[in-house]
Design brief:
The complex is a heterotrimer of chains A (about 350), B (about 140) and C (about 280).
Chain A lengths: L11 H28 L5 H29 L4 H5 L1 H24 L6 H7 L12 H17 L3 H7 L1 H8 L1 H14 L2 H5 L2 H28 L12 E5 L8 E6 L2 E8 L2 E6 L13 E3 L2 E3 L6 E2 L16 E7 L2 E9 L8 E2 L1
Antiparallel strand pairs in A: 1-9, 2-3, 3-4, 4-8, 4-10, 5-6, 6-7, 8-9
Chain B lengths: L2 H27 L19 E8 L3 E7 L6 E7 L9 E4 L2 E5 L4 E7 L9 E7 L4 E8 L2
Antiparallel strand pairs in B: 1-2, 2-3, 3-6, 4-5, 4-7, 7-8
Chain C lengths: L15 H28 L7 E15 L5 E8 L5 E9 L7 H11 L7 E11 L2 E5 L7 E4 L4 H4 L4 E13 L1 H7 L9 H9 L5 E5 L5 E8 L6 H4 L6 E11 L2 E6 L5 E3 L16
Parallel strand pairs in C: 3-5, 9-11
Antiparallel strand pairs in C: 1-2, 1-4, 2-3, 4-5, 4-6, 7-8, 7-10, 8-9, 10-11, 10-12
Classes of the chains: A alpha+beta (about 350), B alpha+beta (about 140), C alpha+beta (about 280).
Chain lengths: ~350, ~140, ~280
C-alpha cells in the first residue's frame, strides 16, 4: 500500500523473494556453463551465453505462467505470486541479453542495419518451416519490455488496473510466440527429441494448470437470484461464512465480498483497488479486510483503508433475516459507512 | 481479478489450448528432413589393395595400399576428426606428400624411392604453429 | 481458501505451514529448472572444433589473388617430383564483409597492382576441417609489405573434375570455419545471408550419411561470383548441377544456375525435376 511514490516498497518478504530468485538464477547459469563446457567444450562463448540466457528465460516464463493458476488452485502458493513482478522484470532482462547477443551475432557488422536485417534477411514469411523465427522472438521480447516498463504501480494507477491487467495479459501472446520461436528455430537444426518432448510437456503443464484454475473458478462463482421487494438478494446462511472470511457473490454486474467478523456481517466490493485482486478470497486480519495478492487492507464497515492510506471500496447494505444473509447490490459511493448486519 | 477479466483469461486459455498444440505439431511436421547424397561429388582415386599395417588414432585412420605392377604405394588417410590446426602437411620419410583434407578418405601416391629405408615414418605437421600433429611408424 | 493460514507479503514472516510449502516449492522449481537445463544441454548436437583466433594476429606470406575469390596462395612444400604444392588461404574482411574493399585500399595506398604479387598479410586465422581463412582485421594495416615471390612460381592450372549433381548446404565460410559455432542450418540462416550479401565467397558443403565431406567454393558457370543469386538459398539443403575443378588444395564448383537450384525441403514438396548434368 502506498501513500507516496517510491521505486520499490521494500519489505522483508520482497527482499527474500529477490534474493532467492537471484541466487537461483546464478546457480542455474553457473551449472549450465559448467555442464556445457564439460560436455561440449568447443561451444563458442557467444553460443553459450545465447543458450544459457535463452533456456533460463524460457524456464522463468513457464514458472511465471504457472504461479497465477497455482495460487488460484491452492492459496499456499501465494508467496510466489507476491513479488512476481520482480520475476517478470528479471525475465525481461535475461531475455534482453539473449536477444541482444543474437542480434549482434547474427545481424551485426554486416552491410545492413541489424534491426532491418532482422526482418529482411530471411524473407520466407509465407513458409511455416522457413519462417524467420527470430522475428517471433523479437516481438515476444517487445511484449516483455512493455510489461517490464509498465510493471511499477505508477503505471498500474495511471493506466487503470483494468487496462494494465489487459496489457499484461499479452504475456500469453509472448508465450505462444516463444514456443514457436524455439520450435521453428534451434529445434529445426538439432531436432532433438528430448527438446521436443520437454517443450511439449511444459506447454501441456501450463495449459493444463490454466484450464484447471479456470474450471475451479467458474464452479466457485456464486450468482445471486430471487431478490425480495426491497431489492435484497439471499446470499447464504450466516453460519456458512467462516469467521473473518467472506463469501463472494455476483449479482447485477456487481462483484461483492460478504465478510463475517466479530458476530457481524459487512459487504464491500470484491475488487481490490490495487490490482483488482479478489478481496473475498482474503481474510480479516487485525480488523481489516486483507487482499490475498499484496496485502492491501480495508475496514469492513466503510471500505476505507486505515489511515494514512487512502484507498476506498464501494459498500453495500446487508441484513440478517432468520439466520440468512441478504445483500442489496446497489453500491454506495466508495468509503461510505454502512451498518453491519448482526448475527 | 474481476469476473470479466477471469472470463477473458478462461477464453484466452481455451483458445491457447487449441492453437498452441496445433502450432507445436505444425512445427514438428515441418522439421526439415536430412537428405544425404549416396557419394561425394568430386571423383576420388580408387583404393588399391591393402599392404601392411593400418594405424588408427582419434583423428585419423591410415592404410598403406599397393597395386600389382606399380612400384609405388598408396597412402590412404581417413580424417575421422579434424585437427584443430590451420594446416596439416603430410610427410612420408620427411618428404612432403600433400595436405590433409576434410573429414573423409584421401589417397596420396608414395613414390617407390620412399620405401628404401624401413622403418617408415609418417608425420602430420602444422607448419604455421610449428607442431607435429601426428607421428606414426610403419615397420615395412 | 483451502486452509486457515493466510499469507500477507508485507508481514515479516509467513505463517509456518505456508513458509514450509514455499520452501519445498522453491526447491522443486529449482530442481525442475536444473533438469530442464540439463535436458537442453544433453539434447544438443556436438559443436565442431572450428577455430577463430580472436585477438591473435599472424602474418602469412604468399602470392595474392583477388579474383574471383580473394585468396593468398602459400607454399605447402615440394612433392617427390620437385613440383611446388600450395595451400590456398581464403581472405575475408572484418565483420560480415568481403576482403576486396580492404585489398583495393591496400592497392591504392601502394600505388601499384597487388594482384598476383608476393605479399605478407597480417590478420586473424580462421580454420576448420582442412580449410584456412584469414580475416584482414586491421584493414589496410593488414599489408606488411611485398615479398620476392613471383607469380610464375605460384602459377598452377585448375584441374577439371567434370560435372555432377551436387547435394548439400551453402555455408558462409567465415562463420563455418570458426567465427561461429554452430554456423549452419536454420538458426544461422540470417547471419549466412548477411555474410554472403556482404561479399564473403560462398562455400558449398556436401556430406554423406557417414559424414564424409567435400567443400567447394561456389562460383557461377562463367567463373564469376554469384553471391546475389544464391543468398536466398543459404541454410537450405539443395541440389544443383555444377562443373567441378580443383584449384590446388581447394575444390571449386561452377554452378549451372540455368538448370535451377532445387531445395530438398519441405519434404512434402520435394522437387524431383533435377536436370541431367553433362559430364
Amino acid at each position: 500500500m502506498s501513500v507516496q511514490y517510491s521505486t520499490v516498497q521494500w519489505n522483508r518478504q520482497k527482499r527474500r523473494y529477490d534474493r532467492i530468485m537471484l541466487v537461483s538464477i546464478a546457480v542455474y547459469l553457473a551449472l549450465f556453463a559448467a555442464l556445457q563446457l564439460a560436455f561440449y567444450p568447443t561451444v563458442s562463448p557467444e553460443t553459450l551465453i545465447i543458450r544459457a540466457t535463452g533456456t533460463l528465460a524460457l524456464i522463468m516464463l513457464h514458472f511465471i505462467l504457472a504461479i497465477g493458476p497455482l495460487s488460484r488452485i491452492d492459496s499456499r502458493f501465494m508467496p510466489l505470486l507476491y513479488n512476481r513482478r520482480h520475476l517478470g522484470v528479471t525475465l525481461f532482462l535475461i531475455a534482453a541479453v539473449h536477444g541482444l547477443f543474437n542480434i549482434i551475432q547474427f545481424h551485426g557488422l554486416g552491410n545492413e542495419d541489424p534491426l532491418v536485417s532482422l526482418f529482411t534477411s530471411n524473407t520466407r514469411y509465407g513458409s511455416p518451416g522457413d519462417f524467420p523465427f527470430q522475428v517471433l522472438g523479437f516481438f515476444a521480447l517487445l511484449i516483455l519490455f512493455l510489461m517490464a516498463a509498465t510493471s511499477h504501480d505508477f503505471w498500474l494507477k495511471n493506466l487503470h488496473p483494468k487496462v494494465w491487467k489487459s496489457l499484461h495479459m499479452l504475456v500469453y501472446a509472448a508465450y505462444a510466440l516463444l514456443i514457436l520461436h524455439v520450435m521453428l528455430g534451434v529445434v529445426q537444426l538439432d531436432q532433438s527429441p528430448l527438446w521436443i518432448g520437454l517443450a511439449g510437456l511444459s506447454m501441456a503443464a501450463v495449459i493444463g494448470l490454466h484450464l484447471r484454475a479456470g474450471r475451479l473458478e467458474k464452479a466457485g462463482q456464486h450468482h445471486l437470484k430471487n431478490a425480495d421487494q426491497a431489492g435484497f438478494f439471499p446470499v447464504c446462511t450466516a453460519d456458512e461464512i467462516p469467521e473473518n472470511r467472506a463469501k463472494i457473490a455476483l449479482v447485477d454486474g456487481q462483484n461483492i465480498a460478504v465478510f463475517r467478523y466479530d458476530g457481524k456481517i459487512s459487504a464491500v466490493s470484491n475488487i481490490c483497488r490495487h490490482q483488482h485482486g479478489p478481496l473475498g478470497e482474503g481474510q480479516i486480519v487485525d480488523g481489516c479486510i486483507t487482499c490475498p495478492w499484496h496485502g492491501y487492507q480495508y475496514l469492513p464497515h466503510n471500505g476505507q483503508s486505515p489511515p494514512p492510506f487512502t484507498e476506498k471500496l464501494e459498500t453495500y447494505d446487508v441484513m440478517i433475516r432468520d439466520g440468512k444473509v441478504w445483500v442489496n447490490p446497489q453500491p454506495y459511493p466508495e468509503g461510505t459507512e454502512r451498518p453491519p448486519g448482526v448475527c | 481479478m474481476v469476473p470479466e477479466l477471469r472470463k477473458r483469461h478462461r477464453q484466452v486459455w481455451r483458445l491457447m489450448a487449441v492453437a498452441l498444440p496445433a502450432g507445436f505439431m505444425l512445427a514438428v511436421l515441418v522439421l526439415p528432413r536430412r537428405n544425404f547424397p549416396d557419394k561425394l561429388p568430386a571423383p576420388a582415386d580408387q583404393a588399391w589393395e591393402m599392404a601392411g599395417e593400418s594405424r588408427e588414432t582419434e583423428e585419423l585412420a591410415v592404410n598403406l595400399r599397393k597395386k600389382a605392377g606399380t612400384p609405388g604405394r598408396q597412402l590412404e588417410i581417413t580424417v575421422r576428426k579434424p585437427f584443430k590446426a590451420p594446416a596439416g602437411r603430410i610427410y612420408w620419410q620427411d618428404q612432403f606428400v600433400g595436405s590433409l583434407g576434410a573429414r573423409g578418405i584421401h589417397r596420396y601416391y608414395l613414390d617407390s624411392t620412399l620405401f628404401s629405408h624401413p622403418p617408415f615414418t609418417l608425420k602430420i605437421v602444422d607448419p604455421i604453429n610449428e607442431v607435429v600433429l601426428q607421428k606414426m611408424e610403419f615397420p615395412q | 481458501m483451502t486452509n486457515k493460514e493466510f499469507y500477507i507479503g508485507w508481514q515479516d514472516h509467513a505463517p509456518e505451514g505456508i513458509a514450509t510449502k514455499t520452501r519445498k516449492t522453491i526447491l522443486m522449481l529449482v530442481g525442475l529448472a536444473t533438469v530442464a537445463g540439463a535436458v537442453f544441454i544433453f539434447g544438443q548436437r556436438q559443436f565442431s572444433n572450428s577455430t577463430f583466433e580472436l585477438g591473435h594476429l599472424r602474418t602469412l606470406e604468399g602470392v595474392l589473388f583477388t579474383d574471383p575469390i580473394p585468396s593468398l596462395k602459400i607454399l605447402a612444400g615440394k612433392d617427390a617430383a620437385g613440383q611446388n604444392q600450395f595451400q590456398r588461404v581464403l581472405l575475408v574482411g572484418f565483420g560480415k564483409h568481403s576482403a576486396l574493399p580492404t585489398l583495393e585500399a591496400i592497392q591504392q595506398a601502394q600505388g601499384q597492382e597487388i594482384d598476383g604479387k608476393g605479399v605478407r598479410l597480417e590478420g586473424q586465422l580462421i580454420y576448420y576441417d582442412g580449410l584456412l581463412a584469414m580475416e584482414l582485421t586491421k584493414g589496410e594495416a593488414a599489408f606488411k609489405g611485398f615479398t620476392d615471390a613471383n607469380l610464375q612460381d605460384y602459377f598452377t592450372l585448375p584441374k577439371d573434375l567434370g560435372s555432377a549433381i551436387l547435394q548439400g548446404e551453402i555455408m558462409d565460410p567465415k562463420c563455418y570455419l570458426g567465427a561461429m559455432r554452430p554456423a549452419e542450418g536454420k538458426p544461422h540462416r540470417s547471419c549466412a545471408i548477411r555474410c554472403i550479401e556482404g561479399g564473403i565467397p560462398p562455400l558449398f558443403r556436401s556430406a554423406t550419411a557417414d559424414d564424409q565431406r567435400q567443400y567447394f567454393f561456389l562460383l557461377g558457370y562463367d567463373g564469376r561470383a554469384i553471391n546475389g543469386e544464391i543468398a536466398g538459398y543459404m541454410a537450405d539443403d539443395i541440389l544443383f548441377c555444377g562443373r567441378m575443378e580443383k584449384w590446388d588444395d581447394w575444390l571449386i564448383v561452377k554452378m549451372d544456375t540455368g538448370k535451377g537450384i532445387h531445395r530438398t525441403n519441405p519434404w512434402w514438396k520435394k522437387d524431383t525435376s533435377i536436370p541431367m548434368c553433362g559430364s
